[in-house]
Specification:
The chain is α/β, with parallel strands linked by helices. 38% of the residues lie in helices and 22% in strands. The protein has helices at residues 20-38, 56-68, 89-94, 117-122, 125-138, 153-173, 194-201, 210-218, 222-235, 249-269, 290-297, 308-321, 433-443, 457-467, 480-496; strands spanning 7-13, 46-49, 72-79, 99-103, 144-147, 176-180, 204-208, 237-238, 273-276, 301-304, 328-337, 344-348, 363-366, 378-381, 387-396, 401-411, 424-429, 448-452, 470-474. A 6-stranded antiparallel barrel has the order 11-12-17-16-15-18. The protein has a 5-stranded parallel sheet with strand order 2-1-3-4-5, with helices on both faces. A hairpin with a 4-residue loop joins strand 15 (387-396) and strand 16. The longest helix has 21 residues, at 153-173.
Length: 501
């Protein structure tokens, strides 16, 4: 995930009313702010100061340039002085990149003894940004608004979040998703409108046969195979049957070939996310387990049973989360732990949980799989650390896409799980399992999610705004009656404003 060339443009608005000297100072101050943000440890995307804009033509030109610049993934706007907002209409009408409105001013405090009208004319963000804000609201422009002094830790952290989301959105706009095999038969929630998804998000989702992967598996060399088997042995705790001379050693060899072939297939096609399904494996000897787990750990998105929406979201969220503490993985709500005092969810899947959320060195094991009719698959088995996390589900409601987020708290299991041969995590839903699950089901949330201990709800809120999709959050304050009212209100909103879908 190389991001060194990606940029956020810092665009400052003003006008010619105040004279050349004022504009010169505006340009200098804007450059200083951009440099300050660019060097902030809270922002890991390059912030590039652009020439100040003072006329409709200049504004339109910078918006056109941003749209066509491959490395530009968004713009931050700020009105240093009063900037009449009708000048922005043409530019905002055509702008396709994410927009963050930074409401700040160059100096933090009022110079009480020296303030005069020259200072007032120069530092007019307090009402210049309100004029700009009105125009964006009048045009129904989705954007992020951040208020505060640009040097403050709070402002820079908020900008850091938004720039990460803009990076994930840029990834989604150019993403290729490979569906190896079709959707799991008769399953509804993993289906969806792939054409509308490409219109809304940019991702191209297309189907491939397992034979397209098999030809890459057949091309694996002994040197490649031996090298990967050495990596397995040094990185994971191999169980005895998988070690050299073990009775299941061939299963590990077959799993390694699948990983090498699948990786070559994805790399050749430029795919950053993929799906498979146990019902359509073709000549594959086993359902990919460790292969998928390791590919996810390297940053690929994945969805089981043909779930392309979750696969794409996982990749986008991994891009957002790079460099942050905590992992991000494909996940499934699997089973419940009900007690009178507290109820929990055990999240897991047949095989495919990303080792980025492991709480230690994973164990590499082989066990039977009762579905799919293939040989016993190899997988990594581990638990996950305690701490705050989110579960995010992107679903197709027919007339719009909906993103559902549940805030959870991962906890240590009450006992060991010696007979459970899969990776897993136990969590406490906010506000509680009963309320959270009621809201989730009312919202139509999928059983597949993206689970992340690196990202929080604010990332998903920024993502939904950039994507122009519906967001439903289930958190400590969720009340079912109010949640139902929100669902009903959203139905009316998205019916009236079809363009927002």
């Amino acid at each position: 995930m190389k991001i060194t060339k990606k940029e956020i443009w810092f665009v400052t608005g003003s006008q010619h009313l105040y004279g050349a000297e004022t504009l010169k100072q505006v340009a200098s101050n804007a450059e200083s702010i951009a440099k300050g943000l660019d060097t902030s440890h809270n922002i890991h995307i390059n912030i590039v100061s652009k020439k100040i804009v003072t006329t409709p033509d200049e504004i339109t030109a910078i918006c056109i340039e941003a749209n066509t610049a491959e490395n530009c993934i968004g713009i931050i706007t700020w009105m240093h002085t009063f900037s009449p907002a009708k000048m922005w209409i043409a530019g905002l009408n055509i702008l396709k990149k994410p927009l963050c409105h930074l409401h700040t001013q160059f100096s933090a405090e009022i110079p009480w003894k020296d303030i005069d009208m020259d200072f007032m004319n120069l530092n007019q963000s307090a009402h210049g940004d309100r004029e700009f804000g009105f125009m964006m609201s009048r045009m129904r422009q989705k954007r992020k608004v951040i208020v505060g002094h640009w040097k403050s830790e709070s402002v820079q952290k908020q900008l850091g979040v938004w720039t990460r989301v803009a990076l994930g959105w840029d990834e989604l706009r150019h993403m290729k998703v490979a569906r190896i095999g079709d959707n799991m038969r008769q399953v509804a929630v993993t289906e969806g409108d792939k054409v509308q998804a490409q219109v809304r998000f940019g991702m191209a989702v297309n189907g491939y046969d397992p034979s397209d992967v098999i030809k890459h598996i057949d091309a694996v060399t002994e040197k490649q195979l031996d090298g990967l088997l050495d990596v397995y042995a040094s990185t994971y705790n191999l169980t005895e049957p998988l070690k050299k001379g073990g009775k299941k050693r061939q299963s590990l060899i077959d799993a390694a070939k699948i990983e090498l072939g699948l990786r070559a297939f994805l790399d050749e096609g430029g795919f950053k996310a993929f799906t498979d399904t146990f019902e359509n494996l073709g000549a594959l000897k086993q359902l990919p387990g460790i292969a998928v787990q390791r590919l996810m750990a390297d940053g690929y998105g994945f969805g089981a049973e043909g779930d392309w929406k979750t696969a794409a979201m996982l990749r986008a969220m991994k891009v957002m989360a790079q460099g942050l503490d905590g992992g991000t993985s494909f996940m499934e709500d699997y089973t419940y732990h009900f007690t009178p005092e507290k109820s929990y969810v055990l999240g897991s899947h047949m095989l495919e949980i990303c080792a980025s959320i492991a709480d230690g060195k994973p164990s590499c094991e082989v066990h039977p799989l009762g579905i799919g009719g293939k040989e016993d698959p190899v997988r990594l088995v581990f638990g996950s650390p305690a701490g705050p996390a989110i579960n995010a589900s992107l679903i197709d409601m027919g007339n719009r896409f909906r993103l559902i987020v549940n805030e959870v708290e991962a906890v240590k299991p009450m006992a060991d799980l010696p007979k459970l041969p899969v990776a897993r995590v136990l969590w406490d839903c906010k506000p509680n399992l009963e309320t959270a699950t009621t809201a989730w089901i009312l919202a139509g949330g999928a059983h597949h999610t993206v689970y992340s201990q690196a990202l929080s709800t604010v990332y998903m809120e920024d993502f939904a705004d950039i994507a122009g999709i519906e967001l439903l959050v289930i958190d400590a304050n969720t009340n079912i009656r109010e949640f139902k009212n929100t669902l009903n209100a959203n139905e009316a909103y998205y019916h009236l404003f079809q363009h927002a879908m």
